[in-house]
Amino acid sequence: MILTADISGERLDAFLARCAVGLSRSAAQKLIEEGQVTRNGKPGKKNDKLNMGDTIEYTIPEPKEVDIVATQMQLDIVYEDDDLLVINKPKGLVVHPAAGHQDDTLVNGLLYALGDDLSGINGELRPGIVHRIDKDTSGLLAVAKNDFAHTFLASQLKDHSMARTYEAIVCGSFREDSGTVDAPIGRHPSDRKKMCVTERNSKHAVTHWEVVARYRGYTHIRCKLETGRTHQIRVHMAHIGHPILGDTVYGRKKPELGLSSQCLHAGALCFTHPRTGRPVMVFAPLPQYFEDVLEKLKKIS
Question: How far is CA 93 from each of CA 38, 103, 159, 236, rounded to the nearest angstrom?
């Protein structure tokens, strides 16, 4: 693939992540490090500053064969056709193999159910995975069956036309009925496993929220993502003083109401179908753990 730089002074890796559909910043950096990217015919470096009109050529290698164990598991498939499927992921399930989770992830289950019928754009460890949600976040996740669908869905993520709506219970009460958090998110300076609101090495992040119901000391809210940064809702809610109930990483350190992980559910996913061009709207009801917490809150309010 060949791209032409349209902004002077932009870093090569940032340019690729912005303009090459389906490539994240980390994936672009990996391609550059592997020598798969040239700038004006010469090998590029991730921190190269581009000039207007530079010609950038990149190659995405064929996915490698790796030994990921196909594992039989019950998958809650709420939508499926020849190009994609949407999974309702339970709380506690890791999306793709990583340290400590090799054979018990959603990818293992997808390989058992679909075999080779998954896209390869995101690499050998993440076949079909267009976007992720945290291990302890439940809800909807789109999975691509081919590279055409993957590229199309990834472009909607990049231009923010894929609508993702989450339900959450947060600590504290809101005076307002709705609001917006517009605050950049980047890696935490002292804890690399965490994210934080920061101006340094950060990305634009916007979360819209509205109150669903108020309880004594807690609020049920609905969040709509305008951007999709790592841990975005968890970081933004903690930033405004309303951490998500059960989130011991960004919120209160002790479990509350029987929860030791965030009460956060991806309840709605809306996108344009890559093949038909028609809107697809998928919804997932609140899981039992969420309903149980609501019942407890009703009793104490």
Answer: 39, 11, 28, 23
Domain holding 85, by residue range, is 62-154
The whole-angstrom separation of Cα 125 and Cα 83 is 20
Q: Do residue 176 and residue 257 come from a single domain?
A: yes
Among 137, 154, 171, the domain boundary falls at: 154
Written as tens digits, the pLDDT of the chain (301 aa) is 576 777 788 898 888 888 876 677 778 888 898 888 998 998 999 888 988 888 889 887 765 555 678 889 999 999 999 999 999 999 999 998 776 666 789 999 998 888 878 887 766 557 788 888 999 999 999 999 999 999 999 999 888 899 999 999 999 999 999 999 999 999 998 888 899 999 988 999 999 999 999 999 999 999 999 998 999 999 999 999 999 999 999 999 988 998 989 999 999 999 999 999 999 999 999 999 999 999 999 998 7
The burial class, CB within 10 Å (0-12 / 13-18 / 19+), for 176 is exposed
Domain count, the chain: 3
Question: Would you please indicate which residues are annotated as catalytic (active-site) residues?
Answer: 134
Same domain, 296 and 187: yes
Strand, coil or helix: what is 223? Answer: strand
Residue 115 burial class via C-beta count within 10 angstroms: exposed 0-12, middle 13-18, buried 19 and up = exposed
pTM for the predicted model, two decimal places: 0.79
Residue 31 lies inside a defined structural domain of this protein = yes
CATH number of the domain residue 11 falls in: 3.10.290.10
293 and 201 belong to one structural domain: yes
Beta strands 279-283 and 185-187: pairing type? unpaired
Please report the DSSP string for 260-277 in residue order.
Answer: SS--EEEEEEEEE-TTT-
Nearest CA to 240 out of 175, 148, 163 is that of 175
